[in-house]
Specification:
Order of helices and strands: HHHHHHHH
Strand content: under 5%
CATH superfamily of the largest domain: Tetracycline Repressor, domain 2
CATH class of the largest domain: Mainly Alpha
Number of strands: 0
Low-confidence stretches: 5-14
Distance between the termini: 69 Å
CATH topology of the largest domain: Tetracycline Repressor, domain 2
Structural class: mainly alpha
Number of domains: 2
CATH architecture of the largest domain: Orthogonal Bundle
Shape: elongated
Largest sheet: none
């Protein structure tokens, strides 16, 4: 029995090691993409993660495989954030805080998402592409929006998909204004969010 247990442990250990390597690579990718943008060298990601090139490419054969995993993890964590806010805040405050964090996240992963869209959606990874992420965010938005509507704090003629579309517009708008300095774009983004929030409130 003990031998069997030891053998089972040995069989599980490579899977745990592999998972740890994947997590280190994804964390390193998130850090370097935020710092340098989506054009960051994959070799630099591997060095930051503390893994060799062979290990890196075994888990992520291409840049798109890595981007899909980064996008999937960030999106899934942000959907969980909606649940946390719903449990900790009043419905209206939870929704508004989530929208603010949504814009911050969207700006951070904008380059990754643009790359995914430009390369098309891989059917082999249904959880990791833009279409999947859009659906997850709509569900999370609805989970915060509907309680706020039921409480009479938010207008009722809007749904989760409308909300995600509005925020997405705020996120991508600076792409068309590359000549404007970052401080001006930030101020413009904040004004747009205030307009959206004011329009959502039930008056």
């Amino acid at each position: 029995m003990a031998d069997n247990a030891a053998a089972s442990t040995r069989r599980r250990r490579p899977r745990a090691d592999a998972q740890r390597n994947i997590e280190q690579i994804v964390r390193a990718a998130e850090l370097l993409i935020a710092r340098h943008g989506p054009a960051v060298a994959l070799e630099e990601v591997a060095r930051e993660a503390g893994v060799g090139p062979a290990t890196f490419y075994r888990h992520f054969p291409s840049r798109m495989h890595l981007f899909e995993r980064v996008y999937r993890d960030r999106t899934a964590r942000f959907a969980e954030r909606a649940v946390e806010l719903a449990a900790a805040e009043e419905p209206r405050e939870a929704l508004i805080q989530w929208l603010r964090e949504f814009i911050t996240l969207g700006i951070e992963v904008r380059g990754v998402l643009s790359a995914l869209i430009s390369q098309g959606l891989r059917e082999s990874d249904p959880e990791g592409n833009a279409e999947w992420g859009h659906t997850v965010l709509i569900k999370a938005a609805a989970g915060l929006l509907e309680p706020a509507q039921a409480a009479g704090a938010i207008r009722r003629d809007i749904d989760g998909e409308d909300l995600v579309t509005l925020i997405h517009g705020v996120i991508v708008a600076p792409e068309a204004r590359a000549s404007v300095d970052s401080a001006h774009r930030q101020a413009s983004t904040e004004r747009a969010l205030r307009v959206i929030i004011d329009g959502l409130l039930a008056h």
